[in-house]
Design a protein that fits this description.
1449 residues; alpha/beta; ten-stranded mixed β-sheet; 52 helices; elongated
Length: 1449
């Protein structure tokens, strides 16, 4: 059974917006308030952990200084007792709960208790973290605030100290505060939809925060989501605004220094008339007015807070939107109706959930009816059905008030959305909520495309591309691509790829979108957490960072600006700040729209921007738009791999590597399509110079990125083979080539064939030049030369090494000099103009080059020693060692072999295993050797013999050479030196000299030897074998790729090498020296590896590549659909859709049947009443009075058999012929509330016995004309008196309608739907949200209205009076104005002044006079359209003027 107090509080306890906020506190009221964007909040929250003590200290000091509570300072005994039977104060608290000062004699003694005087503010004592005992470890935030706390302070607390992100949407859930029952399906739909909309849009949900009624439903929805969600990112922010004095167990929350955390016990059984907080809310604002047990205290503060939040602007990506607010209604009583009325009045859209009960169902039942059919009797009937328990408490005046409010609510259909389960095509509450917001936004009056633009901004902020597709991108509005640019930027910055894809589908062209300003703005808004942002802070230049990532072989992507140019992307991006606070991004686009200077490739620039932030989906969409797609994919792979090396976060690094691998596969896929179509053109793509990517080639990018899979592609290997064979045919046998090398004349016999038949036919020097310049021939000539060099070197070392160098040795020196010259040429060979330092680093990065340099340096050292007679032998030793290094160089030569090449790679990888193995082996060798040496030998002082005994002998023991004296069996003193004096014999072990026997413990040395051999021979050697086996198996899978990748280096080396082998290569070096040094001719890469195409040829090649890229993407989509997992998912989706359709159809049928049955019951009941009246009339006299004839209900059942509720289009005036604005309950600019007057009671002829309107007459400076006897000609308004009008009776006004034809740049009249378009002169006055026609009330004796004079200079007044005299009257009569009363009203005369000719002198004079208008008033010419934001009565006049000229409206 519910507590009586809870029932009494009924309407007060229900949640809602409450009364309309009159005044909103400014941000300036709070000290040190800072406005930050959501990224700052997020970074702050990441930097400051939840339990950070420093943060708690700041909160403990800030809250008491800025937030107060209320305390009763004067105890006045109340006639009522508490639940425990104790004496309480008028505030509801007992004497013990008051401060000592409140119970002592006081200055207020003897006076009545007044909350304004006897309740004072003091620093709050309840704030911090809240934990619900026994309900898990979820931690929330709470604070106790005074009811007078400015909304700006609370908002600052939530965003700055609680760390909440600024919301994209505010959802205020209101309804019944008492527990109520909902259908299980409706409850499930509501919970799922509410949480979905909050999660996807980043919304705040605001409720009453208690564990009852609608608040409990919201809390359980959040709880269910939390249990099913496995990630923190989807946390739903649920804020409870509750009354402090009605919270049970609130004593546990009182912590003067803050509760971190405060433990709260949820005790429903012992709460009595109070309520408990809901454990599923994340934040609580507890409103205190100094009383106990009074419900509804929080409503005014909640209303102000919601209005304040909805007036804040959230800026993201250059697009700023005011935070939208929506009211969601479940069930509810009288207080909920008041909340809905206030929300509708304030322009807040409301979503009514039908089927939840009471007020929600009453409004839902009549929402689709015309206003004329919503009568007092109908509302009385609905109340009797849905308020059965309390229907008898409804008085006639209250029912009239309900009727009036419901009429006003239903009249604003654009703000009212009824969610019907399974009806009107609705399935999800989240869609209904977002559609309600868009419908409200669509209904608002805006200039031009501002309305649609605002809706699109909302959809982007909510990240609901489904809503954008279904509600915004329709045939109703044609979007210009330029209008989508600001929201495109916002979608890019906030990483919403689905919207980027949607905008591209709707006409956005990246070449037009990406300007220098846009690109600069995008880089200014990089994610602060991304690695590229950190690198920019160090290096300051985008171009510099990109060149570091791509490699120095590329040219800078962005050219250095001239001094006359304004800063471009080469300047320090973090230090350039655009004024985006005061200037919208749209104005940025308008400012830069005149620029014709674009980046070289806008798609490339946007792709790089997405890649450096590791945005996979976004980059994929942009890459699909790129032209040079293979180069773009390889460049992305290179950038990502470089970034992954520096990324400290392991997960991010792995994601980058995965994405790099994905782009490598994309490059492979497109190249495969190209290669299948045309091998020659595909190979052209490989070596084409890409201007967009720093004048590099696809092949270079792949090599620098180490994309082995791409390089090992069959098409690329075929190309490399083609380069390897030069102008020779690749099908020539190697034996033929070698034979022609050895026997030169065979070349002219046709033994080898050329690719160009011309060479075969011509022969001679051209044929020889083509043959000997082929890399394969150069390679084999160098092999023969190198073998000859090694043979000659070996011969000199072993046979002919004389004190004076022989001719053979001199030939070796010459040969080596030619090798030195060749290595020098390779070091300085710089066709890409990378610079000496880069080329040196690149040269020494190759292992074989290091080996070459080491061999040459060692040879020079040996040669130096050899030429000095005293060091002849050491010189020979050094040269002998150098011979080994030259022999090792042969391994590089063998890498070209398909058989030996992969094996050499495996050997190189195994060398690493050997080094790790040697470290483990050294531990055992040294430990055993030292122990053995110390046990056997006493004080051996010869270092060489110590090394032999410790290391050398121990190492040989592994291979079976057991030391002679280890066990004493072969002990012989003749084989050793007793004192260690013989340099050729080891020192004798410990022995008994007299008995000639060993004195060391033989058993110990034997055990050590066995253990040593066990671990080294069995364990370590088998470990090495296992390591080799693992390395072999691991590398074997990729050796082919590695070999193909490294094959390129060898091919490029011999492709750029002079044809002559050493030592004849010196002639080529001499020629090269003359060309480079003397003639200054720069080096150029051969066209076979880097080819710059003509523009036409390049354009055709790129178009062909784009076409095949589309084929690749289509194939990828097809393969994705053919995957078994995808097929299963598609089948599941189809089954789910079918089940939903079946459920929907069932619900539609049942709903239609219920409606028709209800209509039939109503018809039968009215028929019975009619028959009863006929019988009674006939019985009395045969002629009955018509006063009692019942009005038959319309025949809905037959008309709506196949129609859905609300599907009929009703054409009705907003007031059905009655004035509407003049009956608004709140009189403007006052606290006066009108008497509610429903439509049917407006005419004076209709009897309205309870009509008792208040009297209101505002004070005016000038004397008002007194004529209180007049009555409003349009009927009752709910208010007597003059109001704020100037006089009683009619108040006359004048409204000129100044129009001209709208013309284009050529001077032709613009048309829309065949009709001509007008422009009208409108003005905006200070503190006004709408524009208005120029005009208003006239002062006595004046011919022009005062407001019209404000926009015209005084010298133009006479001419304008003449225009008025010549004008045409379009309307004269009553004006429906909110200021009208029963005794005073406005009557206006509207005169049309139309300028037919654009060169009219009067028009030019008027425009010149408008330019010098009052600075407080704005005036402009605006296109006449039904969406023009004018006052409604002015729009009626404007429509009549447009009709007069047959113009578009």
């Amino acid at each position: 059974m519910e507590p009586s107090a809870l029932r009494k509080s009924g309407s007060e306890q229900e949640e809602g917006f409450g009364v309309q906020a009159r005044r909103i506190a400014d941000l300036g009221m709070v000290p040190n308030l800072r406005r930050s964007n959501s990224s700052l909040y997020r970074s702050r929250r990441l930097q400051c952990p939840f339990g950070n003590s420093e943060k708690q200290e700041n909160l403990s000091s800030w809250i008491p200084e800025n937030i107060k509570k209320k305390e009763c300072m004067y105890f006045v005994e109340s006639s009522k007792l508490s639940d425990a039977g104790k004496v309480v104060c008028e505030c509801g608290y007992t004497r013990e709960q008051h401060l000592d000062e409140a119970t002592k004699p006081h200055a207020f003694q003897g006076k009545e208790w007044d909350p304004k005087k006897h309740v004072q503010e003091m620093p709050t004592d309840a704030f911090g973290d809240i934990v619900f005992t026994g309900l898990g470890q979820k931690v929330g935030k709470y604070v106790r605030v005074s009811q007078d706390t400015p909304s700006s302070v609370i908002y600052h607390l939530m965003t700055q100290h609680w760390g909440l992100d600024i919301p994209n949407l505010l959802i205020s859930v209101t309804g019944g505060a008492k527990n109520f029952n909902m259908k299980l399906r409706l409850k499930s739909i509501f919970r799922r939809g509410l949480v979905k909309v909050a999660q996807t849009t980043g919304a705040w949900i605001i409720t009453g925060g208690s564990h009852t009624g609608v608040m409990k439903q919201v809390g359980e929805a959040v709880r269910d989501f939390s249990l099913s969600s496995s990630y923190k990112e989807g946390e739903v922010i649920t804020i409870g605004v509750a009354t402090w004095g009605t919270i049970h167990n609130r004593e546990s929350l009182i912590q003067p220094t803050g509760g971190f955390p405060a433990e709260y016990i949820l005790d429903e059984e012992g709460q009595g008339n109070l309520t408990c907080l809901d454990s599923n809310h994340s934040h609580f604002i507890l409103v205190d007015d100094g009383t106990h047990g009074q419900y509804g205290v929080e409503i005014p503060l909640r209303t102000k807070l919601e209005k304040f939040i909805s007036e804040q602007t959230k800026e993201r990506g250059g697009v700023a939107i005011k935070i939208p607010i929506v009211c969601v209604v479940l069930e509810g009583g009288p207080g909920t109706l008041h909340t809905i009325y206030n929300a509708i009045t304030n322009g807040t859209p409301c979503v009514i959930v039908e089927g939840s009960g009471r007020v929600a169902d009453v409004i839902a039942q009549v929402a689709n009816l015309p206003i004329s059919e919503i009568t007092i009797s109908l509302i009385q009937q609905k109340l009797s059905v849905f308020f059965q328990e309390m229907f008898e408490t409804f008085t006639e005046s209250r029912i009239v008030e309900w009727t009036k409010k419901i009429q006003d609510i239903v009249r604003s259909r654009q703000l009212l959305t009824v969610f019907r389960e399974g009806k009107d095509g609705q399935q999800d509450v989240d869609v209904a909520i977002l559609q309600a917001l868009l419908k409200a936004s669509r209904s608002q009056d805006h200039f031009g495309h501002e309305n649609w633009d605002h809706q699109l901004k909302l959809a982007v902020a909510w990240n609901r591309v489904d809503i954008a597709r279904s509600e915004i991108f329709t045939d109703e509005w044609q979007w210009k691509p330029s209008d989508l640019h600001p929201t495109m930027t916002a979608a890019l910055i906030s990483n919403k790829p689905e919207f980027v894809k949607l905008f591209l589908e709707n006409g956005v062209r990246l070449k037009e979108f990406v300007t220098w300003d846009t690109l600069l703005y995008l880089y200014e808004n990089l994610e602060p957490s991304c690695l590229f942002h950190c690198k920019l802070q160090k290096m300051h230049h985008v171009a510099q960072v990109l060149r570091e990532l791509l490699g120095d072989f590329t040219q800078p992507l962005y050219p250095r600006p001239r001094h006359s140019d304004r800063p471009r992307l080469l300047l320090p991006v973090p230090h350039i700040k655009l004024n985006v606070q005061g200037v919208s991004l749209r104005s940025l686009y308008k400012r830069s729209s005149g620029h014709v200077t674009f980046t070289m490739d806008p798609v490339r620039d946007l792709l790089i921007w997405a890649i450096v932030q590791n945005r996979r989906e976004l980059a994929g969409i942009i890459w699909a738009q790129s032209q040079d797609c293979i180069a773009a994919a390889l460049a992305c792979s290179k950038i990502l791999k470089e970034l992954s090396k520096e990324e400290e976060d392991t997960d991010s690094s792995e994601e980058m590597l995965v994405l790099a691998d994905e782009y490598e596969h994309r490059a492979i896929g497109v190249f495969t399509e190209c290669y299948r179509k045309d091998e020659e053109r595909a190979q052209k793509l490989l070596i084409r110079v890409s201007e967009a990517w720093g004048k590099t080639t696809c092949l270079q990018l792949a090599l620098e990125a180490k994309d082995m899979k791409f390089v090992s592609h069959g098409g690329i290997q075929a190309f490399l083979t083609k380069v390897w064979w030069g102008q020779l045919c690749v099908d020539n046998g190697l034996w033929r080539v070698v034979l022609c090398m050895l026997v030169f004349p065979l070349l002219f016999t046709g033994l080898v064939s050329f690719r160009e038949k011309r060479l075969q036919a011509v022969g001679g020097s051209a044929c020889a030049r083509a043959f000997f310049s082929a890399p394969v021939v150069v390679f084999h000539l160098n092999i023969l030369s190198y073998f000859a060099f090694l043979c000659l070197f070996a011969y000199v070392l072993m046979v002919d090494f004389q004190p004076t160098p022989s001719w053979c040795e001199c030939a070796i020196y010459l040969w080596l000099f030619s090798l030195v010259c060749e290595e020098t040429r390779q070091l300085f060979y710089d066709p890409d103009e990378c610079g000496l330092m880069k080329m040196a680093a690149l040269y020494f990065s190759d292992f074989w080059n290091k080996l070459d340099v080491a061999a040459i340096v060692l040879f020079i050292a040996g040669l130096t020693c050899r030429l000095i007679p005293a060091t002849l032998y050491p010189g020979r030793v050094i040269l002998s060692l150098d011979f080994i290094m030259f022999c090792l160089r042969l391994m590089h030569i063998f890498t070209v072999s398909k058989t030996l090449g992969p094996k050499i790679i495996i050997v190189k990888r195994m060398m690493k295993d050997v080094f790790f193995f040697l470290f483990l082996l050294a531990v055992w060798v040294v430990s055993f050797g030292v122990a053995k040496q110390a046990i056997l030998i006493h004080n051996e002082r010869r270092v060489d013999w110590i090394f032999r005994g410790v290391v050398y002998h121990s190492y040989l023991t592994i291979f079976g050479q057991i030391p002679a004296y280890i066990d004493g069996v072969n002990f012989n003193l003749d084989h050793c030196s007793p004192n260690g004096t013989d340099p050729y014999k080891p020192k004798c072990p410990e022995s008994d000299v007299t008995r000639h026997e060993p004195a060391f413990p033989e058993w110990l040395t034997v055990i050590l030897l066995c253990l040593y051999l066990l671990f080294t021979n069995i364990l370590l050697l088998n470990l090495l074998i296992a390591m080799f086996n693992y390395t072999f198996q691991q590398v074997q899978e990729h050796t082919d790729q590695i070999w193909k990748f490294q094959r390129h280096d060898l091919i490029e080396e011999y492709h750029s090498r002079p044809p002559a082998p050493p030592p004849f290569i010196l002639l080529s070096h001499l020629q090269l020296f003359i060309k480079r040094v003397v003639l200054k001719i720069p080096a150029k890469r051969h066209k076979q590896l880097k080819n710059k195409l003509e523009k036409n040829e390049e354009a055709a090649l790129l178009s062909w590549e784009i076409y095949l890229k589309e084929n690749y993407l289509q194939n990828q989509q097809y393969q994705q659909k053919q995957r078994p997992e995808q097929k299963i998912e598609d089948i599941c989706n189809k089954v789910d859709a079918m089940v939903d359709l079946l459920d929907m159809d069932h619900l539609k049928r049942s709903g239609s049947t219920e409606q028709r049955l209800a209509s039939l019951e109503e018809q039968v009941a009215q028929t019975a009443r009619t028959l009863h009246w006929i019988v009674r009339t006939l019985r009395d006299s045969g002629f009955g009075s018509e006063a009692g004839v019942p009005i038959l209900a319309p025949q809905k059942a037959s008309e709506e058999q196949d129609a859905e509720p609300g599907s009929r289009k009703r054409a009705e005036e907003p007031g059905d012929g009655y004035h509407v604005n003049a009956r608004h309950l709140l009189y403007p600019n006052s606290l006066v509330t009108r008497f509610p007057v429903p439509n049917e009671k407006v005419p004076w002829e209709v009897e309205f016995l309870i009509y008792d309107p208040p009297f209101y007459t505002a004070e005016r400076k000038e004397a008002a004309i007194v004529d209180p006897t007049g009555e409003n000609p349009m009927g009752r308004t709910g208010l007597r008196g003059r109001g704020s009008l100037r006089c009683f009776g009619p108040n006359h006004m004048l409204h000129p309608v100044v129009t001209r034809w709208r013309r284009n740049q050529d001077g032709a009249i613009c048309r829309k739907s065949i009709k001509k378009m007008l422009e009208v002169l409108v003005v905006e006055h200070p503190l006004s949200e709408h524009w208005a026609l120029p005009g208003g009330s006239r002062e006595p004796g004046d011919t022009l209205p005062r407001k019209l004079k404000q926009i015209l200079r005084q010298e133009s007044w006479p001419s304008f009076e003449n225009l008025l005299k010549r004008g045409m009257e379009v309307y004269k009569g009553y004006m429906d104005d909110p200021r009208n009363t029963d005794n005073a009203w406005i009557e206006t005369v509207a005169i049309s002044i139309h300028f037919q000719d654009q060169n009219d002198m009067e028009l030019k004079r008027l425009n010149s006079h408008l330019q010098a208008c009052d600075p407080g008033v704005s005036a402009r010419w605006q296109v006449v359209d039904k969406r023009i934001p004018l006052y409604s009565n002015h729009k009626t006049i404007l429509r009549k003027a447009a009709t007069l000229f047959g113009a578009h409206y």
